[in-house]
Amino acid sequence: MSLTAPLFRSELRADPLSRCAALGLPNHSIAILPFYQSQAELDVMDQDSTTRDVPYSPSFILNLASQVDEAIHTVVDFSFLPGFNNPTLAVLYQTEQTWTGRLKEYKDTTKLIIFTLDISLQSYPIITSVEGLPYDALYLVPCTEVFMGVIIVCTNSLLYIDQSSRRIALPVNGWAARTTDLPMGPEPTVDLKLEGSRAIFVDDKTLFLILKDGNLYPVEIGAEGKTVTRLTLGAPLAQTAVPAVVKGLGDGHVFIGSTVGPSVLLKANWVEEEVPEEEEGQGTAVVDTKGQQDWDMDDDLYDDDDDLYGPSKPVESTTTETAVAPKKMRSVLHLSLKDHLPAYGPISGMTFSLTSEGDKPVPELVTATGSGIVGGFTLFQRDLPVRTKKKLLALGGTRGLWSLPIRQSTKGPGGVSVERGVNPFNAGKEGDTCILSTDANPSPGLSRIATKSNSGKSDINFTTRVPGTMVGAAAFFQRTAILVVMTNAIKVLEPDGTERQTILDMDGKLPRPKIRACSISDPFVLIMREDDSLGLFIGETERGKIRRKDMSPMGEKSSKYLAGCFFTDTSGLFESHYQNLAPGGDVATATLQTVLGGGNKAQWLVLVRPQGILEIWTLPKLALAFSSDGISSLHNVLVDSHDPPALSLPLDPPRKPQEFDVEQIVLAPLGEGDVKPHLCVFLRSGQLSVYQAMPLGQVDPTTGPEARRPSHLDIKFVKAASIAFEISRPEEEVSGVLAEHKKIPRVFVPFSTTAPTGAGYCGVFLTGDRPNWIFGTDRGGVKIFPSGHAVVNAFTACSMWERGDFLMYTEDGPRLLEWLPDFSYDYPLPSRSVPRGRSYSNVVFDPSTCLVVAASCNQAKFASYDEDGNRIWEPDAPNVSDPTSDTSALELISPDSWVTMDGFEFASNEYINDIAIVTLETAATETGIKDFIAVGTTIDRGEDLAVKGAAYIFEIVEVVPDAAIAPTRWYKLRLRCRDDAKGPVTAVCGFQGYLVSSMGQKLSFALVHWVCYGTRQLCHPLKCPRSSEIFVRAFDSDERLVGVAFIDVGIYVTSLRSLKNLLLVGDAVKSVMFVAFQEDPYKLVLLAKDVEHHCVTSADFFFTDDGELSIVTGDEEGIIRVYQHNPQDPDSRDGKHLLLRTEFHGQVEYRTSTVIAKRNKDDPSIPQSKLLHGATDGSLFSLTPVEEAAFKRLQLLQGQMTRNVQHTAALNPKAFRIVKNEFNSKPLLKGILDGNLLAHYEALPIATQNEMTQQIGTERQTVLRDWIALSGPW
Predict the structure, then answer these.
(1) Which of 62, 156, 485, 884 has a beta carbon 3.0–4.6 Å from 518's, enabling a disulfide?
(2) Rounded CA gap, 143 and 223, in Å?
(3) In angstroms, how far is CA 563 from the centroid of its own chain?
(4) Over the stretch 971-994, which tens digit does the pLDDT of each residue have?
(5) Kind and range of the H or E run holding 1265
(6) Where's the RSE1/DDB1/CPSF1 second beta-propeller domain (predicted)?
């Protein structure tokens, strides 16, 4: 058996004292990697130049059979034991292979051996050897140093074994005593199954046992001194997802990882509490009822405040009081949830549906995910889903919207404005009171101030109209005034809209260029003019007015700046890492404290010069604290260069906009719970990058104190996300007033909101023709989601009606929007979970009724019967249960409320293999055709009888709804036909009004084979597979299926796809076949097939706009193959063989796929196909056709990135995708591009992008345009 064998599962174990690590290998071998421990070993390592960079010595392979014990074969598990001077291994293996049918001959065939590793002497003495253990031993769990034993988890029992070979057994069902000769003790009252379980010690005497259904049981070790006397199983404490890995993290923390659902971090600790009087005398195993509830993953598991209580032991108090009876105390095990990692598990089925919860019907990807109690559906959308709450068409706002919380001020002595007192219990909860909007029409613009209307006739009232176009607005003077920046002036308005102060932007008596942008942060105002000049103003709270601020520390008066903003450091990161070595230097001076009126967080000024230099200045003293020249090139990390303020560029000739000019910049907090400062940069070329501010850490030792600026910030900006857009600028194609009207403002607007789920998010919205939401989540990092609108002219967060609302001016006008509830943003796509408590194997969407049809998976008791109908075997004890088998139910689900409208339960031993929406001929409609639901099933009848199956035809019919349950339309399933088959119906589809189904695998007893088991020989007949059959049936009289054609194909059909009269057949053994159907006469013809054998799990048609047809298959190893049917090629043997063109290793198996129509911008009438696949690890990936010219460019770029980009762990991405093929001399890898590798090109610095494209003879913009056309999920 090799490392790549499907049945081999390698295990990695580490010594508790980190002295070595062991990796399980095939053929009863273990690879040992010793670690250096002593200082002497480290000194020797430093002297050896070849190994000084690694803290370990060379590894070696330990062959257990030849170097430890020759009887070691078929290793089940191994583990290191704690508490020994040398590394000590416990190995569990089988001396004789057996199964339940041979227990009379071979029963207890497992053996445990414990030996030490003397690595220096290459000696491995055996300490303990225990044989005669149950044959169904699963794995080992080493005990702590207190007992220095090991727990063996078997299918039906738990065994404790110490160094003296003592055995303590704990049966967990009635099968334990029947499958082993070991003494099992008292008959258990429970019936547990330990297959798929995981176990771990949380303290010296408590073992957590997590079963495959997620139930967590405590097992307590009873001991006298250091001698174990008993094992006690307690009541279940909690329920999680199906465990895949369990690890202890110290201090009672346990991580339970799952591949089918959320992974959780639990904390277990013992606490002392008084025993209630009613519970006294109930024995030592006391369970606190306070936490005894079903701890479901979708409900109480996510409540961090819930504690769960488990088995406990009474402890009498040692203190007594006078005339008071002594209180009895007990230790109770508390189990609490500390954190969780969201996950939805494998994707077993998917389909597209239409959802109308938002503004308009949008496609939504419905996937069947999870397993067991965490099973259900996960819904994905491409854009961040929102819905309209109000249409405010009278508001306008094509050039800007601002929603502000303004408070009324009162006049104090001397006429000075005094703000009203704030209710401390309402602080931070006050909503917005006014909305400001501005439009460019009628010229020169019109701005309005609106408030909430209480009349009910309209939603808003306009209180003030201001001529001109606003550039920005914000609350000022502690929210007692409105500061408005116009194109030629700055105004301070009273809360009622009357003017308090107006400052015209004049240079003496000459007007300055128009103000194009601004940033307002009380008490500072920054304006940017069209000639890139800067203006800075500061407010005086005592006078209630603003004045110009001296900017002489920033350099010349004629200095130019491309973009700028203010930043208020609410996190304290900047303040804590700022150093000012100049005399009297400080961040927040007395002047600032006076201006702010009592000490807010420090404020900073962020500017970008035309040279591409980012500068951060302190306020109010304007000391340069940070400078970096890598912002226009989008370097991966921006650090302080400690340069002085940059010099201004010459004014003659006037500077023209450049491709890599910074068009917009904002420094704002992003995150969910842990909010951190992020720098968002948007270049004129369409590149958007997000940087996270972090502490600088270790300072470069080559930079001495004299080379550092006295005022500096010890921080760095690390790129967290990057994306490229294809930008159009229609305003540059025309001039004059028309250009102003066509201009689409692209502005970063920070926001903070509370989602309907209760989570609070801080982020930034990018307006314009590429509107995007930018925010961060605790578990997903920085996310960039499209808004789903063609254009967003203006955006603002608005809490005038409810918190969490947003006001947008889109292509449909001004609207009040909100996020849809229950959506999660931790994944690359916005997703919503629909928990159902059970898993689903198939899901389809019926377009005629817009309903979802899904096949649920359940477990049912299985019983075998003789010819007279009597049960062959029945359970004879309460702790012995019937075997279980898979069973299915067909559910009709409404995608609006996800309520099951109707269902059909199949037999307890029948389960669904495939579901398809097929169009069949019928006399019930005017058109003569109608959509039906075709279902193929398997009927298990035990190991002694052949498997059968059936094909079902269901119809969705509308019925009269029950007004108390469903006031709207209601539907039900109606069974129209059932057709029994001699074998399982594994796949179904339809074409041209006919039903296509597969039947197989048919078996026949054909030969006798001799199999050698040790010294005995067993003669048994083998089942020889015959070919499966494909049937084409017509739906006759809406009540029966009539066969019209059939063909023998492979061994077991896994996939059927139809295209007009063509059929694609995927087989578990014989790869893929290409079949055609003719009606005169009825006949199925095999056109071509793959001559190699592959286990195909899915096969699809794939075509491009030029009419080229390909066949795409995926197998159980995750290999994607592309075939071509070309009869003109000599290698195709006159078209009988499919030609393998490409092999690409996807590294994960997928069993479900769907085809999407991909429209070409040049000719949208002819669609291309795009394949979307759902994998067993929960990943979604797509296969997209690429034009030949773009494919050549991207293929050359892929080669450059493979050679020149640093990859994770120095792994080779090309070798990662290569498929070993013994029939081809070279890997067939050039037909599919690695999208995961190419996606990193967007995040590279611009200089690196240009360097790579120059080496392949193309341009950066061309490559990015190619990539943008291909990116996007659908």
Answers:
(1) 485
(2) 13
(3) 35
(4) 999 999 999 999 999 999 998 899
(5) helix 1260-1270
(6) 393-809
Two tokens at 596? 């702010």
3-state secondary structure of 631: coil
The per-residue pLDDT for range 922-972, each reduced to its tens digit, is: 888 888 899 999 999 999 988 888 899 999 999 999 998 877 776 678 999
Over its C-alpha atoms, the chain yields an Rg (Å, rounded) of: 36
Residue environment code for 79-99, b if the CB has 16+ CB neighbours within 10 A, otherwise e? bbbeebebbbbbbbbbbbebe
- Half-sphere exposure in the Cβ direction for 1022 (13 Å, CA): 9
List the structure tokens of 947.
């498997």
Count of beta carbons in the 10 Å neighbourhood of residue 732: 11
| Nearest by Cα to 765 from 384, 356, 398 | 384
Rounded CA separation 810/805 (Å): 15
Token code pair at residue 851: 């309903």
What is the C-alpha separation between 115 and 923, in angstroms, rounded? 78
Contact 643, 632 (CB under 8 A): no
The Cα–Cα gap between 1198 and 1190 comes to: 12
Contact call for residues 979 and 951 (beta carbons, < 8 A): yes
- Of 1068, 1065, 1090, 1091, the C-alpha closest to 1076 is 1065
Amino acid letter for position 149 = G
pLDDT in tens, 1122-1172: 999 999 999 899 989 999 999 999 999 999 999 998 877 666 666 788 999
DSSP string covering 186-235: SPPS-----TT-EEEESSSSEEEEE-TTSEEEEEEEEEETTEEEEEEE--
| Assigned token pair, 254 | 């346990």
pLDDT of residue 736: 60
Token readout for 153 is 């988890």
Describe the crossing of helices 1188-1204 and 1260-1270 by its angle, rounded to 10 degrees: 110
Q: How far apart are CA 406 and CA 498, in angstroms?
A: 14
Q: CA angle, corner 937, sides to 931 and 941, nearest 5?
A: 160
Burial of 1184 (0-12, 13-18, 19+ CB in 10 A): buried
* Rounded Cα distance, 497 and 508, in Å: 28
Dihedral sign, Cα of residue 906, residue 911, residue 917, residue 920: negative
Return d(Cα 596, Cα 603) in angstroms, integer. Answer: 10
- In sequence order, the β-bridge partners of residue 1142 are 1122
CA distance linking residue 658 with residue 934, whole number of Å: 60
Tokens of residue 1163, six digits: 């000719």
- Residue 924 tokens read as 């019930």
C-alpha distance across the termini of the chain, in Å:
42
Helices (H), 850-953: none
pLDDT tens track for 860-917: 999 888 888 888 888 888 999 989 999 999 999 999 889 999 999 999 999 999 999 9
Whether residue 114 contacts residue 69, with contact meaning beta carbons closer than 8 Å, is answered with: no
Angle at the Cα of 54 (from 48 to 58), degrees rounded to 5?
75
β-strand pairing of 460-467 with 446-452 = antiparallel
Determine the length of the chain. Answer: 1274
Residue 199 has which token pair?
Answer: 């176990």
Per-residue tokens: 50: 């070849």
Q: Which residue has the tokens 């048609």?
A: 1101
Enter the tokens of residue 355.
Answer: 């959802």
Cβ atoms of 606 and 565 within 8 Å: the answer is: yes
Q: What is the DSSP letter of 430?
A: P
